[in-house]
Every structure is written in C-alpha cells, then in structure tokens.
Amino acid sequence: MQDGAPSHKAEETQNLIRDNVPEFIEVDISPQRDNGESPDLNVMDYSIWSILEAEACSKPHQSIDALKKSLTKAWNNISQNVIDRAVDDFPKRLKKCIEADGGHFKNN
Predict the structure, then answer these.
(1) Rounded to 5 degrees, what are φ and ψ at 56?
(2) For bias kind Basic and acidic residues, which ranges apply (predicted)?
(3) Same domain, 31 and 49
(4) 60 with 106, same domain?
(5) Same domain, 104 and 52
(6) Which residues contact 60 (CB under 8 A, 6 or more apart)?
(7) Domain co-membership, 28 together with 14
C-alpha cells in the first residue's frame, strides 16, 4: 500500500513496483495532476509508526544499526492490544474515506 509520500510517487518507485507487482494500481504522478494527499489507510501509517517514532526516535542515533536496534526494541514493546485496536479501526477509517470520496476526513 502506498500513500502520498514523495518516495512512493517517484517515477523510479512506480516503475519498480509496476515491473514486480502483477496487480499494481498506478498513481498519476504527472505534475499537472492535483495530487491532494489522500488519507492514510495503512495501519502502520495511521497508528503504529507514531508509536515507533515516539519510542525509538526520541534521541539521535549514532548509526543505522543503533536505529534498527531501537526500532526493534520499540516494536517488541508494543502490546498486542494496541495492534488489535489499530487493526479493528481499519473498517471505520475505510468507511469515512469512502464517505469523503477518498479525501481527507477526521477520525473521531
């Protein structure tokens, strides 16, 4: 699943995925397209990454290995209940996204 991140919309990324994922759904990356950011529907994006960032990135790391270790530790400390709640929230988020015609929506 891709969101509106610049790295996801990069031509090289789109080509790589197109060549390797049989059911790839292309994104219009032309400069003329008004690519208003779409809401995140990926559980990792709307829930888990913020937890990992808060835990693992609260201090600078001296190396990539140190960052990886910090992320792994933070991941292992996330309770199953937190993951379950994030996954259970998906149908509600999807419904709100459909109601907003794919645009932004508030998640209350």
Answers:
(1) -90, -20
(2) 1-12
(3) no
(4) yes
(5) yes
(6) none
(7) yes
